[in-house]
Amino acid sequence: MELVDSSLLKGFSGEIDGLIVYTVGEKTYARRKPVNVRDPQTEKQLRQRAKFPAVQAFYQSVKSGILKEVYDLAAKEEGRRSGYHLFMHFNIAAFGENGFIDYSLLRLAHGIQQLPYSLEIKAVSEDGVEFSWLDNSLTLMAQGSDRLMVGAIFDDDPFQVVMLGGITACRKDGWAPVKLPGGSWKTAHLYCFFGTGDRKRFSASKYFKINK
Protein backbone atom coordinates (compact mmCIF):
# COMPACT_ATOMS: atom_id res chain seq x y z
CA MET A 1 0.00 0.00 0.00
CA GLU A 2 1.36 3.42 -0.96
CA LEU A 3 0.26 6.94 -0.15
CA VAL A 4 -0.64 8.72 -3.39
CA ASP A 5 1.12 12.05 -3.89
CA SER A 6 -0.48 13.02 -7.21
CA SER A 7 -3.09 15.76 -7.00
CA LEU A 8 -4.89 14.15 -9.94
CA LEU A 9 -5.89 11.16 -7.81
CA LYS A 10 -6.67 12.97 -4.58
CA GLY A 11 -10.07 11.87 -3.32
CA PHE A 12 -10.44 9.20 -6.05
CA SER A 13 -11.72 5.70 -5.34
CA GLY A 14 -11.73 2.93 -7.92
CA GLU A 15 -9.48 0.80 -10.14
CA ILE A 16 -6.89 2.14 -12.56
CA ASP A 17 -4.53 -0.05 -14.62
CA GLY A 18 -4.30 -2.86 -12.08
CA LEU A 19 -4.24 -0.54 -9.09
CA ILE A 20 -6.96 -0.22 -6.49
CA VAL A 21 -7.18 3.42 -5.41
CA TYR A 22 -9.15 4.46 -2.33
CA THR A 23 -9.45 7.46 -0.04
CA VAL A 24 -9.52 7.44 3.76
CA GLY A 25 -10.22 10.84 5.24
CA GLU A 26 -8.03 13.32 3.38
CA LYS A 27 -5.42 10.74 2.27
CA THR A 28 -5.51 8.68 -0.92
CA TYR A 29 -3.82 5.28 -1.17
CA ALA A 30 -3.10 2.81 -3.96
CA ARG A 31 -2.31 -0.91 -3.93
CA ARG A 32 -1.96 -3.51 -6.66
CA LYS A 33 -4.99 -5.66 -7.35
CA PRO A 34 -4.25 -9.22 -6.21
CA VAL A 35 -3.92 -11.82 -8.95
CA ASN A 36 -5.55 -14.55 -6.88
CA VAL A 37 -8.09 -13.85 -4.16
CA ARG A 38 -7.61 -16.21 -1.23
CA ASP A 39 -10.64 -17.21 0.79
CA PRO A 40 -9.55 -19.81 3.34
CA GLN A 41 -12.84 -19.49 5.30
CA THR A 42 -11.39 -20.30 8.69
CA GLU A 43 -13.76 -20.91 11.57
CA LYS A 44 -12.98 -17.46 12.98
CA GLN A 45 -13.66 -15.79 9.63
CA LEU A 46 -16.95 -17.63 9.22
CA ARG A 47 -18.09 -16.59 12.70
CA GLN A 48 -17.18 -12.99 11.92
CA ARG A 49 -19.03 -13.04 8.60
CA ALA A 50 -22.11 -14.51 10.28
CA LYS A 51 -22.34 -11.41 12.47
CA PHE A 52 -22.52 -8.95 9.57
CA PRO A 53 -26.20 -9.40 8.67
CA ALA A 54 -27.21 -8.77 12.30
CA VAL A 55 -25.10 -5.67 12.85
CA GLN A 56 -26.11 -4.31 9.43
CA ALA A 57 -29.78 -4.80 10.33
CA PHE A 58 -29.16 -3.03 13.63
CA TYR A 59 -27.47 -0.13 11.83
CA GLN A 60 -30.72 0.54 9.96
CA SER A 61 -32.20 2.00 13.17
CA VAL A 62 -29.44 4.60 13.50
CA LYS A 63 -28.54 5.46 9.91
CA SER A 64 -30.90 8.43 9.55
CA GLY A 65 -30.79 10.08 12.99
CA ILE A 66 -28.43 11.83 15.38
CA LEU A 67 -26.35 8.68 15.94
CA LYS A 68 -25.39 8.55 12.26
CA GLU A 69 -24.34 12.18 12.57
CA VAL A 70 -22.27 11.28 15.63
CA TYR A 71 -20.42 8.50 13.85
CA ASP A 72 -19.92 10.46 10.63
CA LEU A 73 -18.24 13.23 12.62
CA ALA A 74 -16.11 10.75 14.56
CA ALA A 75 -14.96 9.09 11.34
CA LYS A 76 -13.96 12.47 9.90
CA GLU A 77 -12.06 13.37 13.08
CA GLU A 78 -10.14 10.09 13.02
CA GLY A 79 -9.58 9.91 9.26
CA ARG A 80 -11.69 6.76 8.97
CA ARG A 81 -13.35 5.56 5.78
CA SER A 82 -16.90 6.36 6.91
CA GLY A 83 -19.16 6.55 9.93
CA TYR A 84 -20.75 3.26 8.87
CA HIS A 85 -17.42 1.42 8.89
CA LEU A 86 -16.47 2.96 12.26
CA PHE A 87 -19.85 1.88 13.70
CA MET A 88 -19.28 -1.66 12.41
CA HIS A 89 -15.76 -1.70 13.87
CA PHE A 90 -16.91 -0.80 17.37
CA ASN A 91 -20.12 -2.81 17.50
CA ILE A 92 -19.69 -6.08 15.64
CA ALA A 93 -18.27 -7.74 18.76
CA ALA A 94 -21.63 -7.26 20.51
CA PHE A 95 -23.43 -9.64 18.10
CA GLY A 96 -23.58 -13.41 18.25
CA GLU A 97 -25.53 -16.31 16.83
CA ASN A 98 -29.32 -16.50 16.56
CA GLY A 99 -29.83 -12.76 16.98
CA PHE A 100 -27.98 -12.54 20.30
CA ILE A 101 -26.82 -9.05 21.29
CA ASP A 102 -24.64 -8.22 24.28
CA TYR A 103 -26.01 -4.73 24.87
CA SER A 104 -23.27 -3.85 27.32
CA LEU A 105 -20.76 -4.01 24.46
CA LEU A 106 -22.64 -1.66 22.14
CA ARG A 107 -21.17 1.80 21.63
CA LEU A 108 -23.98 3.94 20.29
CA ALA A 109 -21.92 7.13 20.34
CA HIS A 110 -18.25 7.92 19.88
CA GLY A 111 -16.22 11.11 19.80
CA ILE A 112 -13.60 13.35 21.35
CA GLN A 113 -15.83 15.12 23.87
CA GLN A 114 -15.40 13.88 27.45
CA LEU A 115 -18.06 12.20 29.53
CA PRO A 116 -18.66 13.81 32.95
CA TYR A 117 -17.21 12.16 36.03
CA SER A 118 -19.23 9.65 38.07
CA LEU A 119 -22.13 9.41 35.62
CA GLU A 120 -24.63 7.04 37.28
CA ILE A 121 -28.27 6.28 37.90
CA LYS A 122 -29.47 8.03 41.04
CA ALA A 123 -33.08 6.83 41.10
CA VAL A 124 -35.58 4.78 39.08
CA SER A 125 -39.34 5.39 39.15
CA GLU A 126 -42.35 3.96 37.30
CA ASP A 127 -42.10 6.46 34.46
CA GLY A 128 -38.43 7.32 34.29
CA VAL A 129 -34.91 7.41 35.61
CA GLU A 130 -32.75 10.10 37.20
CA PHE A 131 -29.07 10.40 36.30
CA SER A 132 -26.41 12.27 38.26
CA TRP A 133 -22.79 13.18 37.55
CA LEU A 134 -19.98 15.51 38.53
CA ASP A 135 -19.43 18.57 36.37
CA ASN A 136 -15.97 18.48 34.79
CA SER A 137 -16.37 21.45 32.46
CA LEU A 138 -12.81 22.76 32.60
CA THR A 139 -11.64 22.25 29.02
CA LEU A 140 -12.80 22.65 25.43
CA MET A 141 -13.65 18.95 25.42
CA ALA A 142 -15.91 19.27 28.46
CA GLN A 143 -18.06 22.37 28.38
CA GLY A 144 -20.80 23.25 30.85
CA SER A 145 -23.24 23.76 27.99
CA ASP A 146 -22.78 20.22 26.60
CA ARG A 147 -26.20 18.60 26.40
CA LEU A 148 -27.15 15.16 27.66
CA MET A 149 -28.59 12.73 25.11
CA VAL A 150 -29.92 9.24 25.79
CA GLY A 151 -30.49 6.42 23.33
CA ALA A 152 -32.63 3.48 24.45
CA ILE A 153 -33.25 -0.09 23.29
CA PHE A 154 -36.21 -1.96 24.75
CA ASP A 155 -36.51 -5.72 24.98
CA ASP A 156 -39.81 -5.79 23.07
CA ASP A 157 -38.04 -4.33 20.00
CA PRO A 158 -34.39 -5.40 20.39
CA PHE A 159 -33.08 -4.05 17.06
CA GLN A 160 -34.58 -0.57 17.36
CA VAL A 161 -32.77 2.42 18.90
CA VAL A 162 -35.02 5.16 20.30
CA MET A 163 -33.64 8.60 21.12
CA LEU A 164 -35.46 9.76 24.25
CA GLY A 165 -37.01 13.21 24.08
CA GLY A 166 -37.70 15.96 26.56
CA ILE A 167 -34.14 16.04 27.94
CA THR A 168 -32.91 19.59 28.62
CA ALA A 169 -30.04 18.97 31.05
CA CYS A 170 -26.50 20.21 30.43
CA ARG A 171 -23.19 19.06 31.87
CA LYS A 172 -23.13 21.94 34.38
CA ASP A 173 -26.48 20.82 35.88
CA GLY A 174 -25.03 17.65 37.38
CA TRP A 175 -28.29 15.69 37.13
CA ALA A 176 -31.20 14.98 34.79
CA PRO A 177 -34.62 13.35 34.96
CA VAL A 178 -35.28 11.22 31.89
CA LYS A 179 -38.78 10.01 31.09
CA LEU A 180 -39.22 6.52 29.65
CA PRO A 181 -42.10 5.57 27.35
CA GLY A 182 -44.80 3.17 28.40
CA GLY A 183 -45.41 -0.13 26.67
CA SER A 184 -44.90 -3.84 27.08
CA TRP A 185 -41.15 -3.69 27.61
CA LYS A 186 -39.59 -5.15 30.74
CA THR A 187 -35.92 -4.24 30.25
CA ALA A 188 -34.41 -1.02 28.91
CA HIS A 189 -30.82 -0.57 27.76
CA LEU A 190 -29.80 3.09 28.05
CA TYR A 191 -26.82 4.83 26.44
CA CYS A 192 -25.92 8.30 27.75
CA PHE A 193 -23.63 10.68 25.89
CA PHE A 194 -23.03 14.42 25.66
CA GLY A 195 -22.76 16.75 22.69
CA THR A 196 -22.00 20.41 22.13
CA GLY A 197 -24.87 22.78 21.43
CA ASP A 198 -23.79 23.17 17.80
CA ARG A 199 -23.59 19.36 17.40
CA LYS A 200 -19.99 19.54 16.22
CA ARG A 201 -18.50 17.29 18.92
CA PHE A 202 -19.84 14.33 20.87
CA SER A 203 -18.64 11.96 23.57
CA ALA A 204 -18.63 8.20 23.72
CA SER A 205 -21.69 6.59 25.27
CA LYS A 206 -22.02 4.97 28.70
CA TYR A 207 -24.28 1.96 29.17
CA PHE A 208 -26.97 1.36 31.80
CA LYS A 209 -29.59 -1.34 32.20
CA ILE A 210 -32.85 -1.05 34.09
CA ASN A 211 -35.85 -3.32 34.65
CA LYS A 212 -39.47 -2.41 35.31
Quick structural gist:
The chain is built from 3 helices and 11 strands. With 212 residues, it is of the alpha+beta class.
Can you characterise this structure?
The protein is α+β, with helices and mostly antiparallel strands and 212 residues long. It has two domains: 2-32, no CATH class; 43-211, Immunoglobulin-like (Sandwich). The chain contains three helices and eleven strands, in the order ββββαααβββββββ. The strands form three sheets. The chain has a four-stranded antiparallel sheet with strand order 1-4-3-2, with no helix packed on it. The chain has a four-stranded antiparallel sheet with strand order 8-7-10-11, with no helix packed on it. A three-stranded antiparallel sheet has the order 5-6-9, with no helix packed on it. The chain is globular.
Order of SSEs: EEEEHHHEEEEEEE
Tell me the number of strands. 11
**What's the level 1 CATH class of the largest domain?**
Mainly Beta
Please give the order of strands in the largest beta sheet: 1-4-3-2
Q: What is the number of helical segments per DSSP (H or I, 4+ residues)?
A: 3
User: Which percent bin holds the helix content?
Assistant: 10-25%
SSE inventory with pairings:
Blueprint: E1 2-3, E2 14-16, E3 19-24, E4 27-32, H1 43-59, H2 66-78, H3 83-91, E5 117-124, E6 128-134, E7 147-154, E8 162-163, E9 175-179, E10 187-195, E11 206-211
Antiparallel strand pairs: 1-4, 2-3, 3-4, 5-6, 6-9, 7-8, 7-10, 10-11
Helix pairs in contact: 1-3, 2-3
Pfam families: DUF6266
InterPro entries: DUF6266
